[in-house]
Specification:
Alpha-Beta Plaits, 4-stranded antiparallel sheet, alpha+beta
């Protein structure tokens, strides 16, 4: 499909969906692309740039830069429009070769057809942020006062090297088992305390960031502005009650985990994301 000059008609790279209002993008997009809005001013609109190529693909450093630039546009929409539905990296709407509809016409039609659902979800997310909480147990700090661990350490003193190696393996196994058991015991109450401060909570899995740490809980939290302070205060209380616990509190940022749009454009984009896109 080409235009009268033999050139391929433009596509639209989509960053996010924002609600009706007077929001105007204040940042450029990927590689300096000029960002604009598509859709009825009285309804949800898409934040896009005009695109003539295929999906963004290349060396890891380039992909990381593009994803960061994509995220900056999403964050601008979140801050400027009060609510945002982030769209995944590398979603591109192209013309329909069968009907002849332009990429703009396709996107405008989809926005109109999805008006009710999009408006409702944007309303639900208005004024919200996402926070990430990671709680882990410092294994050495937790087991330091354990009687069994103490006995093994005492038993290691003045032992031959071969015996010490065996006891060290036994010590490592014992410490891991004790920490795993404690993490399992702490999980239900900590999750309940965190969830009480959130509008929504999503769990995810990631390996421990540091050696000697036993993961307890890793969640994304949907909160309002007061909820940020409330959750922070709750985490401070947890830290004071559990000195062996390590807490990472990240954010705020747009509610990525609570506004999944990954499948919404499947019928329009017609392109697969390259393997390096994340």
């Amino acid at each position: 499909m080409t235009d009268a000059n033999g050139a391929a008609p433009p596509k639209l790279y989509v960053y996010a969906i924002v609600p009706a209002g007077d929001y105007t993008p204040k940042v450029n997009g990927i590689d300096g692309s000029q960002v604009h809005l598509i859709g009825n001013p009285e309804g949800p609109r898409a934040v896009v740039h005009t695109h003539t190529g295929g999906p963004y693909d290349g060396p890891d450093d380039d992909v990381k830069r593009w994803i960061l630039q994509h995220s900056e546009v999403v964050e601008d929409g979140w801050q400027g429009a009060g609510s945002v539905l982030p769209v995944s990296f590398n979603v591109i709407v192209r013309p329909d070769t069968e009907s002849g509809a332009t990429s703009t016409a396709q996107l405008e039609r989809w926005l109109e057809e999805s008006n009710g659902a999009l408006s409702a979800r944007l309303g639900e997310l208005h004024g919200t942020s996402e926070l990430r909480v990671e709680i882990s147990l410092d294994r050495s700090a937790f087991v330091e006062a354990n009687d069994e661990v103490r006995r093994i350490k005492v038993d290691m003193e003045d032992r031959p090297a071969g015996v010490r190696r065996l006891l060290e393996k036994r010590l490592e196994k014992t410490e891991k088992e004790l920490a795993d058991r404690e993490a399992d015991d702490l999980y239900p109450s900590l999750r309940a305390r965190i969830a009480e401060q959130c509008l929504g909570i999503e769990e995810y899995r990631t390996p421990p960031r540091e050696a000697g740490q036993t993961p307890i809980l890793m969640v994304s939290c949907l909160v309002t502005e007061p909820g940020i302070q409330n959750l922070g205060a709750e985490l401070t209380s947890i830290q004071n009650e559990q000195p062996a616990v390590s807490i990472r509190f990240l954010g705020p940022w747009p509610p990525y985990s609570f506004a999944d749009m990954s499948d919404a454009f499947a019928g329009m984009s017609g392109q697969d994301q390259p393997s390096s896109a994340t």
